[in-house]
Amino acid sequence: MPFPTLNTYLAHLSDPDRPASSVWLDSAGRAQGKYFNCTITSAFQPIRALGSSRIVAYEGLARSASAGDAGLSLWKLLDHAASDDESIELDRLCRMLHAINFFRQDAAGQSDLYLNVHDRLLSAVSSNHGHAFKRILDALDLPVGRIVLQLPATTPQQGWLLNYVADNYRRNGFRLALNAASVAQAQAMVAEQRPHAIKLDARYLSGGVSLEALLEAARAAGVRLIFKRVESAPALASPEVVADLPLYAQGFFLDQPQAALVSDAALAA
């Protein structure tokens, strides 16, 4: 077993005689948690390398619990949380559930886990961003180095906050992915923040804005470019998508989010 401490914890969650807690396993073995009257679990959407379709990572998404994979997205709950403390609690619960549900399935250890950080948390956490989550991972002996925290898009006026939060996460051992609102902002992020990855909307693959300078800067800096919200085949047929450039994509055209990671048989197919 690749994660013995996690497996011991899962066995504890499966014990019918254990005291009630905020996290439990359903009949399919998925970790679930409760936020007010809503039961939360995880869904995962692959991030694929363009050209080969190889899965390099999964993004963890909070979903309401359902019999299949038809649960509703719960990320908007953070927009309506009554207080900063409650938003922090929900965010940490989601990250913990995603980590448990990801690593209990990922025996091969070939992919990373991308986890969102809600924009409300950038200012809600007073100091040492990521420390509480790192303690959870350490307690379960899960690899911090395979977690990539996705920070939300920010305005130029929030640049200082982004740098402060990013520095804290890095000091706790996490890699970072940044969401860019434009090609120009993405290019500035490559130069100034040098994250592990930058996410851009897939509409920039359809032409109208040159990607050449960004692609070259990202390749030189070792920054992954991930095009999100790929909803149709034409987005992947752009002349900017060149075989020798390491580009990545994510979206409903490629994969629907689901509770189970893609199996070896499905990958081969």
Automatic annotation (TrEMBL):
This is EAL domain-containing protein. Signal peptide: none annotated. SMART domains: EAL. SUPFAM superfamilies: EAL domain-like. Residues 18-269 form the EAL domain. It comes from Massilia aquatica. InterPro entries: EAL_dom, EAL_sf. It comes from the Bacteria.
